């Protein structure tokens, strides 16, 4: 969904970045490009800008001429992105400065407009960045009010009284105001005065912390990053209801939206999918369920085609604030592709309890929805518990060895299992090593040390990306290791499913095969919103009935077919 010519954009950024060697700042360069662009397309608009030699630099002029070939919203996206690209990497990352491409903005605004008249009252973007939502929203509002016969003065007053924005970056606030002026340039010219928009520089989480039920619409692409205890402290009084463990900043913005919206108001937020699952996001899911209704999810899997340097799958969430006893609607789920294609993936009734939300990730996943609404077996029913590897290799000081022979008089030598020891096809080998994982043994100090896996188990890679063919990459821990050493130990990127009852129906070897099937993989993807394979999600994963799958295997079915039969699914996907 990135506009065309991203390669051309990168070339222009590289050419103007050279100007920083002579002392120009990112804001200086961006202002000069904007001044040149406005002189070409908006000559009647004034700009708060002192002319400098930068304004006539060839690279600046060419960049502006290129922007002039696009419409306003596309050009604004490129210019905001250029400003971010010129900033130091650490500043860009700490501020999570990633701007929303126009096609995605259009989809979000269309969805909001389908739920509530966007011109019906106060509207805010509490992380307004480069005005990616506010400028196109203003254009829509102008069109709607104009179609009803509104005068230019009436329209300008409506915009001044109802459009709000806030950002911590002072220059981005200025940029948002300028893009808003460009968006309504004909109205400004006709009325003959400059508008006074309510765009504030500061932390909206603090500025609006006492605000309740004030806005009809909230639009937001908030910053995404985890915050530590020191950063959390200023927000605890107001946002403790969305905080658990180490929260992500975007969860606080979701909390803000639920507070400042009026009843019946609609919020649209663009965030990672990680809040769908994970214990730290359970309070976020809880307030979204308790305070209103999720109307729609737009799932975006193509990271590279959507944002510059994006590392996570993202989602547009359309949420309506409702009184406590209001009837909740079913949630519609769509999949957005980078080419603009929209696939309907089904409807669902979200759980009211804060367990992981089962969201179909593709249209074909509609067939799996009933498995989340009807009781299914879990790891607990299978007789297994989850354990995370306890060894954090750069912190743990216990002696580690490449080979057994290196260990002289160890007190409790045990194999150290790394994620590298587990192959995609379910094979386990201590000899599959590289980097730090070359250390294959550890002296735990005593046989009863915490974190030792002593019973039959499955070892799983704890981190896997959505691009991998399998999210659940696991293998049974060889029994001979448990017999010979009395147990094994996992590095922190390994998760174990350890047997807790004697002679379970499903052996570790069979459990590993079940987890590798395409159907179980798809089910896990439906409840996993991040790259980590969490114990919390594994405990909620619906598994096939043990007796049914054993019967299906006894009938001669291969493991994939046996799993589908045990779930009560058709033989073929999508049938």
Summarize the helices and strands and which ones pair or pack.
Elements: H1 6-17, H2 26-41, H3 58-67, H4 72-86, H5 89-94, H6 102-113, E1 123-125, H7 134-147, H8 152-162, E2 163-167, H9 170-183, H10 185-191, E3 198-201, H11 204-207, E4 215-220, H12 229-232, H13 236-239, H14 249-260, E5 261-272, H15 282-291, E6 292-300, E7 314-321, E8 331-336, E9 342-348, H16 370-373, H17 379-382, E10 384-388, E11 400-401, E12 413-417, E13 441-443, E14 457-461, E15 474-476, H18 479-485, E16 489-490, E17 494-499, H19 508-516, H20 518-527, H21 535-540, H22 546-554, H23 559-567
What does this entry look like structurally?
By secondary structure, the chain is an alpha/beta fold. It folds into 3 domains: 1-99, no CATH class; 100-359, Rossmann fold (3-Layer(aba) Sandwich); 379-567, DNA methylase specificity domains (Adenine-n6-DNA-methyltransferase TaqI, Chain A, domain 2, Alpha-Beta Complex), CATH 3.90.220.20. The chain contains 23 helices and 17 strands. The chain has helices at residues 6-17, 26-41, 58-67, 72-86, 89-94, 102-113, 134-147, 152-162, 170-183, 185-191, 204-207, 229-232, 236-239, 249-260, 282-291, 370-373, 379-382, 479-485, 508-516, 518-527, 535-540, 546-554, 559-567, and strands at 123-125, 163-167, 198-201, 215-220, 261-272, 292-300, 314-321, 331-336, 342-348, 384-388, 400-401, 413-417, 441-443, 457-461, 474-476, 489-490, 494-499. The strands form 3 sheets. It has a 9-stranded mixed sheet with strand order 3-2-1-4-5-7-6-8-9. A 4-stranded antiparallel sheet has the order 10-17-14-15. The protein has a 4-stranded mixed sheet with strand order 11-13-12-16, with no helix packed on it. Helix 2 (26-41) packs across helix 3 (58-67) and helix 4 (72-86) runs antiparallel to helix 9. It is globular, with a radius of gyration of 27 Å.
């Amino acid at each position: 969904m990135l506009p065309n010519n991203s390669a051309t954009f990168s070339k222009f950024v590289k050419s103007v970045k050279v100007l920083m060697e002579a002392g120009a700042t990112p804001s200086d360069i961006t202002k000069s490009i904007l001044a040149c662009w406005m002189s070409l397309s908006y000559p009647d608009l004034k700009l708060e800008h002192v002319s400098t030699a930068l304004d006539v630099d060839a690279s600046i002029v060419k960049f502006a001429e290129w922007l002039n070939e696009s419409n306003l919203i596309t050009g604004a996206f490129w210019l905001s992105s250029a400003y971010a690209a010129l900033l130091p990497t650490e500043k860009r990352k700490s501020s999570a400065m990633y701007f929303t491409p126009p096609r995605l903005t259009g989809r979000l605004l269309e969805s909001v407009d389908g739920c509530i008249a966007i011109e019906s009252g106060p509207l805010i973007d509490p992380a307004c960045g480069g005005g990616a939502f506010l400028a196109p929203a203003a254009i829509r509002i102008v069109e709607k009010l104009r179609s009803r016969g509104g005068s230019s003065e009436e329209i300008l007053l409506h915009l001044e009284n109802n459009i709000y924005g806030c950002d911590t970056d002072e220059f981005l606030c200025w940029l948002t105001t300028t893009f808003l002026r460009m968006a309504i340039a004909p109205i400004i010219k006709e009325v003959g005065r400059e508008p006074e928009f309510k765009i504030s520089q500061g932390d909206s989480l603090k500025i609006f912390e006492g605000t309740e039920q004030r806005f009809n619409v909230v639009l937001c692409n908030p910053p995404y990053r985890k915050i530590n205890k020191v950063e959390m402290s200023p927000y605890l009084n107001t946002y403790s209801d969305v905080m658990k463990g180490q929260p992500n900043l975007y969860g606080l913005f979701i909390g803000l939206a639920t507070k400042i919206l009026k009843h019946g108001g609609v919020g649209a937020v663009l965030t990672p999918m990680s809040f769908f699952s994970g214990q730290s996001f359970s309070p976020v899911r809880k307030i979204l369920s308790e305070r209103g209704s999720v109307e729609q999810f737009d799932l975006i899997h193509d990271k590279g085609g959507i944002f510059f340097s994006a590392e996570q799958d993202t989602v547009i969430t359309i949420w309506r604030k409702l009184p406590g006893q209001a009837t909740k609607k079913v949630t519609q789920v769509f999949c957005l592709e980078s080419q603009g294609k929209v696939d309907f993936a089904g409807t669902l009734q979200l759980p009211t309890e804060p367990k992981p939300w089962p969201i179909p990730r593709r249209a074909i996943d509609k067939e799996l929805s009933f498995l989340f609404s009807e009781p299914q077996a879990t790891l607990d029913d299978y007789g297994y518990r989850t354990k995370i590897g306890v060894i954090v290799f750069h912190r743990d000081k216990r002696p580690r060895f490449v080979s057994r022979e290196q260990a002289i008089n160890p007190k409790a030598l045990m194999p150290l299992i790394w994620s590298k020891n587990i192959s995609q096809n379910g094979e386990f080998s201590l000899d599959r090593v590289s980097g730090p994982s070359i250390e294959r043994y550890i002296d735990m100090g005593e046989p009863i040390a915490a974190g030792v896996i002593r019973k039959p188990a499955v070892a799983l890679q704890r981190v896997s990306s959505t691009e991998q063919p399998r999210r659940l990459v696991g293998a049974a821990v060889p029994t001979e290791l448990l017999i010979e050493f009395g147990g094994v130990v996992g590095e922190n990127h390994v998760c174990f499913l350890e047997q807790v009852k004697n002679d379970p129906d499903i052996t570790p070897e069979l459990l590993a095969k079940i987890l590798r099937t395409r159907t179980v993989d798809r089910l896990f993807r439906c409840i996993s919103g991040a790259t980590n394979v969490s114990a919390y999600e594994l405990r909620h994963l619906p598994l096939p009935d043990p007796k049914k799958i054993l019967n299906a295997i006894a009938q001669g079915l291969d493991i994939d077919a046996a799993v589908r039969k045990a779930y009560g699914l058709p033989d073929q996907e999508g049938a």
